[in-house]
Amino acid sequence: MTTTKKSSVSVGDALPELKLPPIDRATLALFAGASGDHNPIHIDLDFARRAGMNDVFAHGMLGMAWVGRLVTAWQPQSKLRRFDVRFGAITHLGNAPVLNGKVLEVLEQDGETRARVQIEMRNHYGESKIQGEALVALD
């Protein structure tokens, strides 16, 4: 983890990009076990097909966890003040997530200097899957 001092954070700064390997069935099974989210749409091919999907797909909360990982690789989790996302599209098997963030604003709030950060997860084709914002206290 890299901690960035507030004096070195400016509007427009990019968070270090996070590239992940393609999503596979093992990743989905492991996340289901770790999270307790055993919804069969994410782990059972037959169920997914009966639901009209070609195959299983990633849990939305798995993507949100990766977005959180992007932010907490930049600043410690203890500095996270708000974390909001919108799930824009399904993340399919074989998609390789690419996560990015950008500082939108540096502000004083509740006695702290904070950065408002735009965050996004796209797949390796550049298709947006999750968008959101985080509010992070700076040292």
From TrEMBL:
Any stretches that span the bilayer, and where are they? none
Ranges where the MaoC-like domain occurs = 22-96
List, alphabetically, the Pfam families matched: MaoC_dehydratas
Q: A single GO CC term, please?
A: fatty acid synthase complex
Q: Which SUPFAM superfamilies match?
A: Thioesterase/thiol ester dehydrase-isomerase
The UniProt entry's GO biological process terms, in alphabetical order, are: fatty acid biosynthetic process
N-terminal signal peptide:
none
The Gene Ontology terms for molecular function here are: fatty acid synthase activity
Which protein, by its recorded name, is this?
Acyl dehydratase
Organism field: Panacagrimonas perspica
